[in-house]
Structure formats: C-alpha cells, structure tokens
User: What shape does this take?
Amino acid sequence: MDDLLREFLTETGEHLDTVDVELVRFEQDPNNETILRNIFRLVHTIKGTCGFLGLPRLEALAHAAETLMGKFRDGHPVTTDAVSLILQTLDRIKEIVAELERTAAEPEGEDQDLIGALDAMSNADPEALLARQQAESAESPAETSVSTASDEAPAAGGFVFQELERDLLPGEIPLDELERAFLEAPGPDDEEGALEEIDAPVVMEGSVLGEPDAAPAEEAVEASVAEAPVVAAAPVAEVKSADGKSAETKPAASARKAEAKDNPSNAGAEQNVAKVQTIRVNVDTLEHLMTMVSELVLTRNQLLEIARREDDSGYKVPLQRLSHVTAELQEGVMKTRMQPIGTAWQKLPRVIRDLSSELGKKIELVMQGADTELDRQVLEVIKDPLTHMIRNSADHGIEDAETRRASGKPERGTIRLNAYHEGGTITIEIADDGKGLNYDAITRKIVSQGLASEAEVERMSEAQIAKYIFHPGFSTAAQVTSVSGRGVGMDVVKTNIELIGGTVEIRSEQGKGTVFTIKIPLTLAIVAALIVSAQDQRFAIPQVSVLELVRVKNGSDHQIERINGTPVLRLRDRLLPIVPIGKVLGLDGAEANPGDEGFVVVSQVGRQRFGILVDGVFHTEEIVVKPMATKLRHIPMFSGNTILGDGAVVLIIDPNGIAKMVGQGSGDTQFGVEAAEDMEESNDNESTTLLVFRGGGETHKAVPLSLVTRLEEIDAAKIEWVGGRPLIQYRGKLMPLVPADPAIAIKSEGPQALVVFSDGERAMGLVVDEIVDIIDDVLDIELVADRPDLLGSAVLRGRATEIVNIVHYLPLAHEDWTSGAPVRNLKNARTVLLVDDSSFFREMLSPVLKAAGYRVITAAGTEQALAALNSDRRIDAMVADVDMPGRDGFALIRAVRAQARLSRLPVIALSSAVTPEAIEEARKLDICEFIAKFDRSGLVAALAETEAQLGEAA
Amino acid sequence: MMAANVNEAGRDGRAVQEYEEFVTVMLGDQMFGLPIDRVHDVFIASSLTTVPLAPREIMGLLNLRGRVVTAMCLRRRLGLPDREEGAQDMAVGLERNGESYGLLVDSVGEVMKLSTETHEPSPVHMDQAWVKLSRGVHRLDERLLIILDVDAVLAFDAESRAA
Assistant: This one.
C-alpha cells in the first residue's frame, strides 16, 4: 500500500469519526452553521481526496452526501431521515474504507441505492431545487470554496497541508486542485512531506502556523496554480471545479488576503480544537522507547543506590542531574502514551443517536472531562466496555418518553459520562437518570438461575443484588433486543476492567437512575511501590493499594492482639484482620517467630480492608513491572517482579491475592473477594442479641442471650462447697457453679453475678465478674480453633469481645451433660445429621442434641451433608440450616428428597427468618418443621415428634 | 554458529557422519549434554531471590543483565538430592517460549562435538522420569553422556506438581 493511501485511510478514519459526532450535534442544533460548515468541510475533504486518489465509489458517495448537506446549508429542513441517510452513507463509506485498508483497492459494488436516496432527498423540495440550480450556476462555487477554505484548515491531520492552507484562506480554488497544486510544488512539499511522515496518533500541542511558513506556502500556491492545468487530467468529479480552475485563480489570491484579515478569529472559532500539531509515530517505536526508559530508570536507581552507600561526592551532582533528567524523560515518554479519553468516546454520540431512534427514546449524551488523559494501553482495554455500558444505560436505564413524562421527568433522558483524575487513578462515571436497577427483576433472576436462594437474596442489600448484573450470562431484559439483553457483556465489562487493576461499582436509586463508577489505574508499566521486608527478604507492594502504614509494637498504642493465634489490630474502632506476610508465604523462620512487631501495611481491595504485617519498610520506589514467569503465575500472592535499584530481583505482592486469603472460607469464589465481602455483609444483616459480661480480666465476653436462662445476683455467702466444687441452692435444687474464667476467684461474701444456663432438669451457674450489657448487634465471628472455652471473637459496639462457647462449660458442671443423657442409652440412640454452615451454630446445637440423647453428625455444607447421608445409613433425621450460602438448605433438601432411600427422611429446617415463601417451599419438600435457630427446646421437641411419627409408621 | 556449519555439511551430503554439539554439564559424577543451539549463555548463579510458594524445582529469580531469569534446579528436576549448602551453582541460560531460564548445575564442562553414530536411545530400564527428559545417550570413551531434552526439562507444570 503506498504511503499516500495509508495516509488517506488514517485521516479519513478520523474525519469520519468527527463527522459522526458533529452530525449528531447538528441534528440537535440544526441552526448551528459552524457545525454544518465543519461537517461540510470534512465531507468535502474526503470527496476531494478520493477524487485525487482515484476512488470513484467513495467519491460518488461523498459527493451525494455533500450535495445534501449543501441543501441544509441553503435552508433545506434538517430532518431525522435526512441525517440518518447521511449517517448511513458514512457507514457505507466506512465499509469501503475498511475494505480499502485490507486490500488496498476499492471493493466492487454499487451504491446507487444510497446515492439515489440522497439525490432524491436533495431534490425533494422544489425550493431547494431552485436554490440548487442557482447555486450550480454562480453561487455555489464561491460558497463551496469559502467553506473549503475557511474550514479546511482546522481539520486535524488534513490531507496534506491543512496547516498552511488555513492561514492562506484561498478564495475560489477548488480544494482538490489546491491539494494537487501543493503536491506538485517542490519546495514546501518536501518539508511538508517530512512533516507528514511523522504525523501520528501522538498529539502534541504547539503552534505550527508562523509567518515564516505562510510565505513559502503562498508562493507554492501561486506556483502550483500555474501548473494546475497540467495535472488536471486526474479524474476529478468536482462539478464546481469546472469553472473555478484557472479563471478564478487570481481572485483567489487577493481574496485570501482580504479574508485572512477580515476573519482572523473565524478560524479559531471554527473548531474548539486549537491548532494542534500532530505527528504520527508508530506505536512500536513508542513501546520500545518506553522499555528503554524503563531500563534507564532502573539503571538510574542502581546508581542512586550505589551513591547512597558511598561518600565520594564527586559524582553526586551529575548523578542528581541524571536523576532529574531521567525522571523528566520518563514523564515525557509516559505522556506520549497518554491519550485523552475522548478518543474512546468519539463513537458514543453516534451510538446514542442510533439507539434513540432504534428504541424510540429520547436520549442526550453529556460528556465531561473528555480531555482527561490516560495510558493508551488502558484506553484500548476500556473502549469496548465503555461502549457497552453506554448501550446498556440507554437500553435498560432510560425509559421511553411517555414513562418519563408520567413519572414527572423531562422527556429526554440524559446519560452523563464524566472522567476525572483522582490520585493515581482515573475515575469514569456513567450516570443515567433512568429508572434505576430493577431489583425485583434481578432478584427473580438470581433465584431462577440458582445463583442464590430466595432466603439469601432477601437478606442481601441492594448493593449486593446489584453486583449480580456482572454475573456471566445475566440479563434481566425481558426480551432480547438487538441492543442488549443477550446477557453477554456486563461480565466481560467487569473482567476487562479488573484485568487492568480497575474496579466497577454500581449505585442505583429506584426511579432516579443508575451510576456506574469505574476506577482504573493511569498506567500499567511503571508503578510506585513500597519496598518492605519480611524475614530478610524484600517485597514490593504497589502504592495504590496501600492506605496507610501503622507501626505496631508491643506495649504501644497499636499492638497486635491475638484471638487464638489469629492476629488482629484495633484501628480506629475497627478490627483489622492482619496477614503476617512471612507466615502466609511460608518463609523460613516465620513460624518460629510470630513477631508482633513491625509495620502493618493497611490495604484495601474492593471494600475489604486488611493489614499486611511486615518486618520492615524501606522506601517507595518507582518500579517497572515485569510479568511473572509462567511457571510461577499460579501463585496468587504475586503479580509480577521487578529489579530494584541495587540489582536485586524483588517480587511484587498482589494485594488481591492476599485479600483472597483473608476472605478464604467465607464463601465460594464465584465473585472472588467480593463474595467474601458479601458473606460478611449478609452476616451483618443478621443481628443477634448478646449478653456481654466481664469475667477474668478486662476482656469483654459475650454469649447469645437466647442460650441464657436467667441472670442472677446471689449473695456469695450462700455459696456452698461440696467436694471442692462450688454449688448453690437454686430454686430448691443444687446448682453447680463454674467460673467463666479460671482467673475468676469466687467471692465469699457480697453479691456475686451469675449467668444461669439450664436444660430440662439441669442448670448451671456461670460465675462472672460483672454483667456489662445486653446488646443487639451483628455477630461477625472470627473463629478460633484451639481455645475450647471460646468460639471466637467479634467486634461488638466497637470493642473486641470474646464469644464464649457454653458447650465447654456444661460438662464442667455435670459430667454427663454432653456425654449422652441418661434418658436413653446410646445403643438405640437415633442419629441426627446437623447441617449448618456456621460452626457457631453447629457447636451450639450439637451439645443440645446430644443432651437430648441423639448421636450427632455434623456437616458444614451441602456436599458434606450428602456425603454423610450416603456413607452413614444410620442417619435417622436431618436438621438443616436453610440459610446457608452457596447451595442453600432447600437445594440440599431437594437433593435428599431426590434419592429414593432418603425420600422419607425426617427433615427439620432451621432458619433465622421464616417467610411465607420459605414455608411454602418447606411444605413442598415435606419438611417436618421450621425451627428458629435459637429455639433449642423447639428443636428437641420437633425431633421427638419425628420419632413418634416414625414409630407410628413402623 | 558451529552447529550451523555442521548442518551445512550434513546437507551437502558429502559428510558421511553427522555431528552434533553439546554443552556438557555435571551433576555429581553424571554428565549431561545440552544442545548447543539452545544454550544462550553460562553464568554464575548468584543473589537468587527465592520465590515463596514456588514449585520445588524453581530456586528463585535472578537478574541477568537487566532480565529476570527463572532459576531452575536440574538436580531437583531430575529427582537428585541437593548439594550441600554453600556450593556455588553454575547456570546455563536457556530460553523457552520467549522466557529466560537458568538451569542450575554443579559445573559446566567443555563443548563436545559428537557424531550421531555414538548416539543411542535411552536404555529402556532407565528411570522413567529421566527417560521423559532425555533424548538418548552418547557413548563416550570413558563415560556416558545423557542428552537432555531442553523443552521437556523446562516444560513442567501439571506433571511436576502432581508428582
């Protein structure tokens, strides 16, 4: 493909994009002559160039479109049909251009359909026809050339010499002639050629048009005009050029000077794009430059590192200078990779326009911050997601005019696109003022697709529900339109954005609209990173994910507390999970030395916060991210590696990987980190009433109030000791007392606080120092494994509180409490399968069941439960929590019922919230009873009942 | 370059014998050969950055003139015991699918030009793990030279982790 053609293709592509945008603007504002002139000029340029290059199909199309636009200018009414027709023509032109790009030849084909339609449209109005005739004879050439002249110039990267022509403003010379003339002109042509060659997608600001340029250009015009007839043989299908060629050359020369004087501001006002000098540079060249600069940065860092160690200051100054220059160079090269986000938006007005007519909605697209720049690599990735999201907003978000009117909104819906810088990231908002997310529809879809149970969905916040629209294959559009609703897209959008380390969030208000917020890093190649150390090995943590650094030291304000070995940090009234990096990575010596001293790097991924405990923090450094070797990519903790200033290879820690570790075990990984978050939140929604007391030290302890029979304050003098064990006469019986903590000394006089637990005939008094409070709070337990007296810890009212495991105390009071009740012997004890995802409830309920004389098998989830049912045929009944995440309890029960052997297995459902739907579901599945989670006696009674039924049946 | 010459000779058809050249490396007493056209360079493996949680064979990453090279231990790859601590490792620079690897060996010996005549397939009763990684054996006068299949040595993902 010759250079000229390639040049033409790039430039025509740009022009077409601009015309697209401008046409849509023009349609809304048909009286704006500036826009029309601009469009006209661009189309004219395309036409002229096509003629010059011998592309008859393109030229004919462009000509027909131009003619129609000429009519607009003459006052022909601007109708939607007409604009659509022109847009269609532009599409055809694009097709041809695409083909041209592929094969370097204009494809065969007929455009008579479009040209016919365009001509018909042009000739439709007799008045317009008349105007046309007049124009043809006299007015038109002048007018055309005026428009070409004044408009030609601002076209960024115009055919050959726009920069120069602009100042010249030649009057009557048809554009194509002029262009050819320029081409023939020897002197400036060469210069221009050189300039043209480096004309590139890289946009640099600067002023090209100085006086010195203008003078030779003028000469060139004159020189070439003289030559014009010689080259006129080229197939130029410009009607108006026939009489404009030689005769008008002279007037042109004088006219342009006059115009240039009269109209100095006109050109500037023509287009808001101030004169921008652009050169084209091959992207590969830029990439190579970038790599080299990266290496330079590394070398500079190495030198600085050496200089830091040595005192010889002889080369410190030049090194300092080198450092500055490198920094500036780096910045400069980075800038060349930057492109305004507007380039990704260019097609959007057209998309919206087409959608509005297709969907019969009135939609306005408002774009702000189009000049916000970001790395072109990033830009490429977000281009398609953005388009998709805009389409979605138009299709799903904005209502049709009638609905809008009915709900008191302006008929025209608005989609607002806003981009701005924020720290090291760029934020893009896509907001519509439509109907907002249809939570009901999403909820139905979630349930019908089996992504979550109804009960789960019910407990979800709107934000959680909204997230499901990013689920693969998820679409709530009632019917599949050509626009969207195919359920492909939003998941791809999310994937694409996350691929480059970005995030998407949704905010939606019913009836008011939806806002998508995308945050993406500015660039991917060089990042600032915090260099930390753990067990003498250094690691880099990307600065963007570091929120703050906290120095932790035993005995200081910030010290790491351990809940059964699990480190946490109190940070502004929140418990921050701490991940000791050495331990997570299995570094030598990390186990031996748990090291609670060092620094906590507080990070945030999504909305999950956690702290990475490191031994030391060095400094921040700009690092060049190198991809991880394929053999090591499976390690989620690292996102890459880099070479530091001292030449050492250092691994880059991926906070996403760490976050996944933090969230591990709290849900399936469908949604990765967010799933973990969701789980947290769903726990959040479920508040538990807890009795908070103090016993043994200042630590607050808590126990679910539902387990407590009563609170007593007794006179300590009444405590009797039998066989070394404290007892008290309580309601006519002897009740054993158990201290809540070995550290509690049972008083001998004064009031003594007791928490009484009872079960049937037996009771136990838990001796505590003080009853603090009864609170209703979300119970988000961090489980601990090897403290038998504790279930775990939780933050209650901003305080770390230990959750007491009552099961531990019961046998201390009555040896036989949990080891099988005297009521029945274990041989014919019935076996109950207890299924609950929360170990808290399993722990709580199994002793209850054991106490009632059942053999208890526990399962933490559906799979485990099914496995247990299949392996242990003695299971007589199942108690299942139906609010489990993942495959919910109902699904489990359905699976159980599906097996012939188990179809009659008595099943008792546990639920924290009993809804009519759940009851209906339960009835269908032949569930014996619905029991609230804390209702122990209800559970025992229900189990006894199933036994009775079974007995009857037998 | 030499390898290319050999090939040319082969193509001429005039040479009766075909030759191949190998870089020899030692692990303990055993000598291995690596096709010379696959060997980019030989260097001393120093200041390795260990990668936590990495497969056993991967000893770490190192900086070789600005490139990050994945260092793989040939001993571990072949299931041989590690050397005693502190022994200096030599590394043979290899490339596969555009990535740089350093194969850690005890020492690097001379380059040998061997006739295909002395080449034999691996003995059938050789350790299967070794058979998979080798491309036969050369009978040298005083010892046997096991030719390593560079791609097989470097290609381990699932199979090595499963093993």
Notes: Chain B touches chain A through 21 residues (CB under 8 Å).
